[in-house]
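Researcher: Let's try something more involved. This one mixes different molecule types, so please make sure each is placed in the same coordinate frame as the others.
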Amino acid sequence: MTWLVWRQHRNQAYFAAAALVAFAVLVLITGLQMASQYHSALTACTVSHSCGNLANTLTLGTPLLSLLVTLTVVVPCLLGLFWGAPLVAREFETGTSQFAWMQSISRGRWLTAKVGWALLAAAAWGGAVSALVTWWSSPANALNQQNFQPGQFDIQGIVPVGYAVFAVALGIAAGTILRRTLPALAVTLGVFVFLRLVIGQDLRSHYLTAVTVIYRFGHAWRHPTGSYWLIAQGLIGPGGHALNTPASFSGAAVNGVPIAEIPATCRALAFQPNLKLTSCLASRGYHGFISYQPASRYWAFQGIETGIFVLLAAALIAVTAIVVLRRDA
Amino acid sequence: MISFRLDGRSVVPPYLQIVQQVRQALRMGVLDVGDKLPTVREVVGATAVNPNTVLKAYRDLEREGLVEPRAGHGTFVVGRPPGPPPGTHALLARSLGQWVRGAREAGLDDESIESLLRITLRAAAEEETA
Amino acid sequence: MTDFQSAALPAIATRGLAKHYRKRTALTDCTITVPEGRISALIGPNGAGKTTLLRLLAGLATPTAGEVAVLGATPGRDLALLAEIGFVAQEIPLYRRMSAEDHIRMGARLNPRWDGASVRQRLESLSIPLDQAVGTLSGGQQAQVALMLSLGKRPRLLLLDEPVAALDPLARRQFLATLAEAVAAGGLTAVLSSHLIADLERTCDHLILLAASRVQLCGDIDTLLAEHQVLVGPRKDTTAIERDHTLVHAVRTARQVTLLIRRKGPVIDPAFEAADVSLEELVLGYMGQDAPPAFAHLTSVGEDQ
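Model: All components are placed in one shared frame. Result:
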């Protein structure tokens, strides 16, 4: 059965391997270049004691290259569409599933071989791309501390493996239930994008309760360090409740709070050097707050999100198995 | 070795066609006592006819005393159908062929030849009874 | 190999088999028996349930009602039985990008009993290239590949859904010869559905006739033909005949009446001329009418009751 799976999907594997190799070559060349660029800049700034400002002065790589790397976020989805959706659906469409099932092997054995290898390949490819991207990003991560941010979080670490396995499982399930490749492609794309957005944007910030720090203006307080993930920030009024910080607000704001919400008496000072505004607010009983996920929780979050997608994948495979084993050929 | 030709459109059932062709082969001398008939598999492979049909034909021939199965070796011819010795048919066929050629040269078509043959057969039958 | 009515296990035995879908009924009240060693013709108009019956026998579909036993076991549930049944669907499913040789290798890995050498030899004798992608072969050649592969599995029951439809007359004859030879070698029963009565007449010795999703006839062809008769006579009252025998089909013109009957005894009516029935007439007679309920309860003929 392994031989058959290989023989059927041989060309797909070759193509994907070629693409991976090409990507790896690009990543390795540019990554080494960026790493050496970073290290020499680091050496230079250590000498001149200006390393604190390095993030503002040093740009690693080119915008085009960064864009390409950011686009690897679509890799799991592509795997789901090209490897997952047609895996079973194509066989139903051409009738080869019927042919295979009359070859003295049980449907369970057939499905296990196909699904097993597909998920393994998905994990391998997703993992390889992610490993390359993570390695390539390590100077940028050290420099900019952005790897916990949405966008970077999704393409580094182990979550891409979870996404890939889920996407392929989703494609397989859709193909099995719908029995046709084209509808399965549409459903896979739609459901995958939807779930990734919902989980990434809405659910992720709640995996662990965010750390909230309320600070008094004028007093020293410890800013979070490293690649922390800022969830929310704003002002807390004298009554103790946070001022309105609409998520989509993109106009003039201070500390995340729209100018209009700042008490009138202090508003005039909004654009003067910070000290004047903060002491005005402090004297009125205002505090600042930030909610964030500390950098130390990065791997916990990676693990939780990967786990969620792997569980979803397992559920989809279970559904697939039930449908294949119970339904008429 | 004899090969069978089965006419799907004949009113004669296939198994009977096989029986008749074996009998005819024996009369013509194509088959003789001691010869081996093709196996059921060989006949089936050549004509796509159902194996049971061949079996039925061979059993009929066995009942008529013309053939005999020998376990492990095949079916062999053991007798001839009643009638003139094998060469006779071939001989008569040759002289008949010559006569037909002569009749054609004389200008007779097939229908005339057939009706002439019928008249002659009838006359011969009357002669015998007379 | 014996052609006597086998007292041993029949290759196929169904009772009251039915398959209902949400919108339509594909098969109802199907009770048939096919003894071992038969080559059975499955005949019927399109949509009569032939493909459904074959899929139920192969275990690819499960019945809505009734029982089905193939070689003594229930298909679809018994994995060991799967190795004994060969099935070729009408669409000739093959892996289009793989060659015939690939299919043969696959068969060797996935089947416990596999005779790849005979498949190769048969395909070579038909001049079918072994290392070309089967998707590039002609329809007839693909059918030959599928059929030879099904024989390579060495099944004890072979189910073929319109197998010769795509073949030219020579290829048809060659395939039927190969099939009949495999049956002659022993241990194989075959059921093939087809519309080509001339082929079926030559190669088949058993008949299953479906019409309106029901079994109209099931039995050995010789016996069925002997039991039926065509009566041709002047147009007159036929109630006596219809009472004494079973009327299958009647054609009445202004002057003449032609009856196809299933005899329950001798026909004693000097007004009518009796003639033997050909397989084609029998099939057309049963297919050319709405199924009277009486035929639904036919059991196999030629079997010990």
